[in-house]
Amino acid sequence: MDGAVMEGPLFLQSQRFGTKKRWRKTWAVLYPASPHGVARLEFFDHKGSSSGGGRGGSRRLDCKVIRLAECVSVVPVSVESPPEPGAAAFRLDTAQRSHLLAADAPSSAAWVQTLCRNAFPKGSWALAPAENPPKLSALEMLENSLYSPTWEGSQFWVTVQRTEAAERCGLQGSYVLRVEAERLTLLTMGTQSQILEPLLFWPYTLLRRYGRDKVMFSFEAGRRCPSGPGTFTFQTAQGNDIFQAVETAIHRQK
């Protein structure tokens, strides 16, 4: 019998023919790959369904088993109508369709991290490379004048894109990018806890350039950065917000 790596309540957005989209509360169970089965995400009517074998009125939702081998991306998204106050949504894409899911904000972050770890093992990527990936020069760029009171900053969910620098640093999947007073910090969920832990950081004084477009935020790190030199690009719907937060942080240092 497979042991679950994570389980808990998840809202699943569904739509039947001729009806409006609605959120349905489910009990989701994430299983890793094992000799007994493939890595997968299963949805049930309520807690206990996964171990009850269908007894007691519990059942798995029709056609709601997602094989992680078919997953191509897991990214946080914003929605106009979340299922409940404080809920955060994320989208799980397979080659065939997209699944919109939601949970309370901490749980949603944990689901994204855990799904990425199991769907995209080391050496693979959360997003298929774009046919024509945007070049740094094509983004709206701003020269960093800093190259050569406490402010808390902001945090943003991002998904790393394949670049030479990202590959060298072993980055893959989704992370939290935190805009701090003096640097950008990339955080990941701890393997033994659900606490965000720093992974890499880039002082603003060592960034050559930074920029964004509608779906990306990117920057060019200088050779003295802990990551080494190179371009780091992240998919995010909040590229403009990150850009403005970085710009504000840099102006505060002047």
UniProtKB/TrEMBL annotation:
InterPro entries in the record, alphabetically? Docking_Protein_DOK (IPR050996), Dok1/2/3_PTB (IPR037751), IRS_PTB (IPR002404), PH-like_dom_sf (IPR011993), PH_domain (IPR001849)
Keyword field contains Plastid: no
Show the CDD domains listed in the entry. PTB_DOK1_DOK2_DOK3
Q: Which Gene3D superfamilies match?
A: Pleckstrin-homology domain (PH domain)/Phosphotyrosine-binding domain (PTB) (2.30.29.30)
Domain IRS-type PTB stretches = 152-254
**One record GO biological process:** cell surface receptor protein tyrosine kinase signaling pathway
Q: Where does it sit, as one GO cellular component term?
A: cytoplasm
What is the superkingdom listed in this entry's lineage?
Eukaryota
UniProt keyword RNA-binding present: no
Q: Which UniProt keywords apply?
A: Phosphoprotein
Q: Which family does it belong to?
A: Belongs to the DOK family. Type A subfamily.
Q: This chain belongs to which protein, by name?
A: Docking protein 1, 62kDa
Q: Which organism is it from?
A: Mustela putorius furo (European domestic ferret)
